[in-house]
């Protein structure tokens, strides 16, 4: 496949993701590095790019190829080496430089990818530069008259110090916490951040291994939380934390080993942030729990609802001068972190909240856990627009109010809601349902699935 064809396959709406080496290899990384540098040199006031990467076996080669491509176009490559994604965002903000993170996040070991950002961790997506970078990467760019230089920098301690300046943990009561790093980058960052605190970390799978020998690094899948849940119960821990492969997302389980919804964590952190920033805006997406806007309003804040996805969240954070934002997928965004997402800072908020009380975490989060949710359910359909039309018509006939900020959200008189969104890349519809109780949620979920899958044979 020629370079244009490869780029057409691996460049997504918000990042680059593909199999190594069949799709994303050194040749492609070099071309994207050149395209990124050329774009920056015509749109930004710097010729420096900071580059970090995860623990996948292919990452060092992709970092070097990307750096070489950028240097060919006259940009200086500052290589930060092993980093979590939020550590790379920290570096971008701390140094005021554009950056790239080499990672495929929670994808299987055969994949790798690139997350690009402008200075101060500002997102780059298809509509904000990635399309033009792709066009330049596909072109045969002539080398610059003077090649850029390469140097290395270590950002881990500065990253840890910055986080401790935002959420100090030195005065909390001692806690025992099981952390499942899933052989990902949290195995590097957790010891650096929590090592000299009253938190005793019981480590699971801290060895950096991009082949993921223990379980996939995707804690959104409940199957991948089972080891952590069992370990929390076995050790009598105060709570458990699970990070994904690039450690930008963090999931929480309570002292019973029960998962705590990311919406509940969003509400908890929103309460904490609003205590010091009364009246501030808090951003949430269309499929976070109703507990989030209710909590924000009750705490004197201003809830701002936006579309799903980190580019949408970051744009809303900036536009509204929001102090904090949270998504159902356990991405948490902080104004004091350049509006970027950081699972580690969210985890520190949870630890600080738990460490300020003798009450168990399950009691601490109970006021925020008042609703029953379906979780995201995907359905493959032949005709996405027709399926959405069926959902819209059914909801209207049942007296629901409908908005189409992101897909179709039908809200009922009892506060229950159903959201159906189309995938950007596949013939899928994604269903999320929330209701005041489990029975009502199940009824709405099953009705919606029947309507969405009309005419689709049962699996």
UniProtKB/TrEMBL annotation:
Q: Which cofactor does it need?
A: Mg(2+)
Which InterPro entries does this chain map to?
A-D-PHexomutase_a/b/a-I, A-D-PHexomutase_a/b/a-I/II/III, A-D-PHexomutase_a/b/a-II, A-D-PHexomutase_a/b/a-III, A-D-PHexomutase_C, A-D-PHexomutase_C_sf, A-D-PHexomutase_CS, Alpha-D-phosphohexomutase_SF
Alpha-D-phosphohexomutase C-terminal domain location is 376-448
Where does the signal peptide begin and end?
none
* Keywords noted in UniProt: Isomerase, Magnesium, Metal-binding, Phosphoprotein
Positions of the Alpha-D-phosphohexomutase alpha/beta/alpha domain? 10-134, 158-257, 265-371
What family is this?
Belongs to the phosphohexose mutase family.
**What name has this protein been given in UniProt?**
Phosphomannomutase/phosphoglucomutase
Organism equals Epidermidibacterium keratini
At the highest ranks, the source species' classification is: Bacteria, Bacillati, Actinomycetota, Actinomycetes, Sporichthyales
């Amino acid at each position: 496949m020629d370079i244009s064809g490869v780029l057409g396959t691996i460049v997504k709406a918000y990042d680059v993701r593909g199999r190594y080496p069949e799709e994303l290899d050194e040749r492609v990384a070099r071309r994207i590095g050149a395209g990124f540098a050329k774009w920056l040199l015509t749109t930004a006031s710097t010729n420096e790019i900071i580059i970090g990467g995860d623990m996948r076996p292919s990452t060092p080669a992709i970092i070097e190829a990307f750096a070489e491509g950028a240097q060919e176009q006259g940009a200086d490559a500052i290589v930060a080496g092993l980093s979590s994604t939020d550590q790379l965002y920290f570096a971008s903000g701390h140094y005021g430089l554009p950056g790239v993170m080499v990672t495929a996040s929670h994808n299987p070991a055969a994949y790798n990818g690139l997350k690009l950002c402008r200075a101060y961790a500002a997102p780059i997506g298809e509509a904000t530069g990635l399309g033009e970078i792709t066009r330049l990467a596909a072109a045969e760019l002539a080398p610059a008259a003077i090649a850029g230089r390469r140097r290395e920098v270590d950002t881990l301690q500065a990253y840890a110090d910055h986080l401790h300046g935002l959420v100090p943990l030195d005065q909390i009561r001692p806690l025992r916490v099981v952390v499942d790093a899933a052989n990902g980058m949290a195995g590097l960052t957790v010891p650096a951040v929590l090592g000299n605190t009253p938190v005793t970390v019981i480590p699971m799978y801290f060895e950096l291994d991009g082949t993921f020998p223990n379980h996939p690094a995707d804690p959104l899948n409940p199957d991948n939380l089972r080891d952590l849940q069992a370990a929390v119960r076995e050790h009598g821990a105060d709570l458990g934390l699970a990070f994904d492969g690039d450690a930008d997302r963090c999931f929480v389980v309570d002292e019973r080993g029960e998962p705590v919804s990311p919406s509940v964590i969003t509400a908890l952190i929103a309460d904490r942030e609003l205590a010091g920033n009364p009246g501030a805006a808090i951003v949430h997406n269309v499929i976070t729990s109703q507990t989030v806007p209710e909590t924000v309003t009750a705490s004197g804040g201003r809830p701002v609802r936006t579309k799903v996805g980190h580019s949408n969240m970051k744009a809303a954070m900036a536009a509204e001068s929001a102090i904090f934002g949270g998504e159902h997928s356990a991405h948490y965004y902080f104004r004091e972190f350049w509006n970027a997402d950081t699972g580690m800072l969210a985890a520190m908020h949870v630890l600080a909240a738990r460490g300020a009380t003798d009450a168990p975490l399950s009691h601490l989060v109970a006021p925020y856990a008042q609703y029953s949710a379906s979780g995201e359910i995907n359905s493959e359909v032949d005709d996405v627009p027709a399926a959405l039309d069926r959902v819209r018509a059914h909801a209207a006939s049942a007296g629901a109010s409908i908005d189409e900020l992101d897909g179709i959200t039908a809200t009922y008189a009892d506060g229950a809601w159903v959201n159906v969104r189309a995938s950007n890349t596949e013939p899928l519809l994604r269903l999320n349902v929330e209701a005041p109780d489990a029975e009502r949620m199940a009824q709405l979920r099953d009705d919606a699935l029947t309507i969405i899958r009309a005419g689709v044979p049962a699996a």
